[in-house]
Amino acid sequence: MTDGKRTDDTRPAIFRNYDFKFGPEQLTPAVVLNLDEPDDRALVNGKLRWAPGLVPGEPNEGLVAGKYIESPPRLKDFDDSDWEEPKNIRDVVGTGFTFAWYRFTIILPDKVRDLDVRGSQIWFETCSDDYGEIWMDCPPFQEDFLAAQAIKANHFTPVTGYNARDRILVTNDAEVGRKHVIACLAINAPMAQPLGGTFIRYARLEICQGVAKIPV
Fold it and tell me: Region 19-32: what's the mean pLDDT?
């Protein structure tokens, strides 16, 4: 140690010059995947599908005034097999007051790039143009559904702002072979004068072990 600083410290820079030590298993780096890239999706047995509209396939994109509606693509068990795979999630779709759904399905493997997946913490992050919602492994809800309950149960993240990033915890204790469905609703805005169309800027999956885990 020189002038209070270690000279033989091989730990990551953010942990140097501290007295505590971590074992190798705790310093395993996180893996970040770009789910817009087919090669990265393949690492988690991934599938990506998209469709335009609040309720795809319905007249006027499913928009009906004065009536409660539910958009089925938010549900984990929704059948998106007849939807297309987007060439690029950043391609602008629709015009004006418009919506689009992007559904990511993953099945967790044993390892991703030499990182053990079992027991890991996994996050999904995206940014919609311009507003966005994420529905995670969403089950059907009862008639007394409250959005706050869905948020608490980690099935839903609401609009967080204009072109704001949106994150959701996929799992805090990953199980190999487990399927997860992440449904993203992109909404064009501002509501009073929506400009252009809508899309999502990126779709990132973070698989974290050891000190990379975030307390939740």
Answer: 61
